[in-house]
Amino acid sequence: MSDKSHDPNQMTGAAMIVRALIDHGVTDIFGYPGGAVLPIYDEIFQQSEVQHILVRHEQGAGHAAEGYARSTGKPGVALVTSGPGATNMVTPLTDALMDSIPLVCISGQVPTHLIGNDAFQECDTVGITRPCTKHNWLVRDVNDLAKVLHEAFYVATSGRPGPVLVDVPKDVQFATGTYHPPRKSDVHRSYAPRVKGDATQIRKAVALLANAKRPVIYSGGGVINSGPEATKLLRELVEVTGFPITSTLMGLGAYPASGKNWLGMLGMHGTYEANMTMHDCDVMLCVGARFDDRITGRVDAFSPGSKKIHIDIDPSSINKNIRVDVPIIGDCGNILGDILQVFKAEAKKPDVKSWWQQIAQWRARNSLYYKKSNDVILPQHAIQSLFEATRGKDTYITTEVGQHQMWAAQFYGFEEPHRWMTSGGLGTMGYGLPAAVGVQVAHPDSLVIDIAGDASVQMTMQEMSTAVQYELPIKIFILNNQYMGMVRQWQQLLHGNRLSHSYSEALPDFVKLAEAYGAVGLQVHKPGDLDGAIQEMISVKRPVLFDCRVAALENCFPMIPSGKAHNEMLLPEQANDEATAKAFAGGKALV
Amino acid sequence: MNQPASAYFIEDRHDPNETHTLAVLVQNEPGVLARVIGLFSGRGYNIESLTVSETEAQKHLSRITIVTTGTPMVIAQIKNQLDRMIPVYQVVDMTQTKRSIERELAMVKVRGQGEHRVEALRLADAFRARVIDATTESFVFEITGNTDKINQYIDLMRPLGLVEVSRTGVAAIGRGPEGM
Ligand SMILES: Cc1ncc(C[n+]2csc(CCOP(=O)(O)OP(=O)(O)O)c2C)c(N)n1
Ligand SMILES: [Mg+2]
């Protein structure tokens, strides 16, 4: 008896949770208390190694943890109570799953003997979150807890990263058991993600690259997830080959936007030159991207004449949407290193001069063109001004979802990875503000800006209160067009301009709202006042809600209409009513 | 191709469907079957038959045998999606190996009199089905075989007074000395 009481590894489940966080180097977690996690909160109260950020809604905790993870490369951690606490986490977990973000969520559960009894604040958390986590666990025995927690961190951060959830009943939190530090045997023997690429496939890939006449590199979020080494190697590969490079929404920043081989983002709202290069290329190197439907356009007309190389750590990404010729399964960084090595030893720089000439012609179409105005702020112009004002500063950008998100991707130039946090796969309105909270917690001295929409920002506005409490000087830069602009655009293009419920009537006064939270509110209407107001926003060392009133009916172009291929983009100068109607003509009568 | 007004690209896919039998070796832990079934329902894959049982108790290993249909690309997806689940050790496409034996067991209850009883017994004999329960007006037959054979037997029993059927679903194993 007395032996055990002196064993430092004997502790309660609640203490093990905090101890495991410390052992995994966690310094900040985001959470919200409730009955089923009170023992854990009691442990948090009695230590100072892990800082807990109290959010205002569990969804905010999840997105904040995502922002934290994306901007640091470390796992984000969220702590929520049973029942409604856990169900409020479903959106961020799904978001993190879609965008491969490492997240560890710990949820409280009703005591084991009550599970299945419809107890107060009981829900089937592991059942509900099974399809929206990479893996999840219900821990019924305190002596399994250490192993499960260590495995959870390993699963979240290894292979293709993703969210995991550990559900801990309250009696397990109270019970005393044996803790052990992380060790190899904590992990399922059945889980062994492949890291190193197959040498034969790598040689095949190099042979294709070396003989390419019209090559393109198409990179994605996997490069950023893989870590700084992968980014470095990607840049080196572009340098060594001289190939053009484009990227998905998730991959922005892996190659610098100011780099001379940069084509801009590809896909539905990508640049003309990026999409045409993809369409007409003869060799495509896809690194850490997944041929998602916003990228490919019409699948049967996607880059019809190319040989495709696909590097991905997840075998299920291979041949999911697009059949590829040379799949290479493994970690991007590892494989890029091998490709470079073989390329440098055996190949010489391919001659792609005439390809670049062709690309220059596409580029000359100036597909991001928009008409500036002296009377009203164009949203594109607002992003450009923001970019100019923050250029060279230590800046992180998050976004909500909608037109403003696409304009941010098109007009804000990212030079480094981990600087761009957006909800790509799930498209979660309300992601950006809490994500900015998480980013600012990780980088207290950096400039953190959420490029927001007037509708999205209201979904998680309550986290302003968190920002004020923890003195997190996040800047919420709202492109306020008074519409759910992206919805309105689709309704205009596809549904006869019947603007069903896409107008935000009764918008709050964002300036007063900011003040009510104890933050700073700014508003600007005139293009001439924009730069000054942005400077003011940057210099204020407090949270700011910036109400940037922009042109209400501006559309986001260029655009690949549904059912069309990359070479059938609608460019801004063509987007008059008639051309638009024709581009979108299909089964339904369109105006 | 006619496109309805949609934010999604709608494709017609024309590849023919194939039927495959997959053997999936998993860690026997709570929720593992729910994960596998959830994958199929969540991603819209078909399950024609599914059987599961612990096969190596000491190592906590279970074997799930799934018969599914889909285009070759979908079948490949299913295998990859299964394989990446944390508690899954191995996925073997028994159909692709072309060296597998598949069996199902069915219990078939038939009720009737006179000629029908005689006929049912005669057919049972031809199919090597055994009588495992009998009353003066009914039989329960036990029959083992591949899915086609069992379907055929059940069809034959129908006019003879078929009452109900209970089937185990398909189990599969490779031929030859090697294990999975
Ligand atoms: C949670 C959620 N609900 C609905 C949608 C569908 N949706 C996509 S964009 C959008 C409008 C966004 O409006 P706003 O935030 O004002 O951005 P804007 O497009 O005007 O820039 C909506 C409703 C979504 N992406 N997420
Ligand atoms: Mg809007």
UniProtKB/TrEMBL annotation, chain B:
Coiled coil stretches, renumbered: none
EC number: 2.2.1.6
Pathway participation: Amino-acid biosynthesis; L-valine biosynthesis; L-valine from pyruvate: step 1/4; Amino-acid biosynthesis; L-isoleucine biosynthesis; L-isoleucine from 2-oxobutanoate: step 1/4
Gene3D superfamilies: 3.30.70.260, ACT-like. Chain A, domain 2 (3.30.70.1150)
One GO-annotated biological process of the protein: L-valine biosynthetic process
Keywords for the protein's UniProt record, in alphabetical order: Amino-acid biosynthesis, Branched-chain amino acid biosynthesis, Transferase
Any one GO CC term of the record: cytosol
InterPro entries named in the record: Acetalactate_synth_ssu (IPR004789), Acetolactate_synth/TF_NikR_C (IPR027271), Acetolactate_synth_ssu_C (IPR019455), ACT-like_dom_sf (IPR045865), ACT_dom (IPR002912), AHAS_ACT (IPR039557), AHAS_small-like_ACT (IPR054480)
Catalyzed reactions per annotation: 2 pyruvate + H(+) = (2S)-2-acetolactate + CO2
ACT domain span: 21-96
Listed GO MF terms: acetolactate synthase activity; acetolactate synthase regulator activity
Function: Catalyzes the conversion of 2 pyruvate molecules into acetolactate in the first common step of the biosynthetic pathway of the branched-amino acids such as leucine, isoleucine, and valine.
Assembly: Dimer of large and small chains.
Protein family: Belongs to the acetolactate synthase small subunit family.
Name used for this protein in its record: Acetolactate synthase small subunit
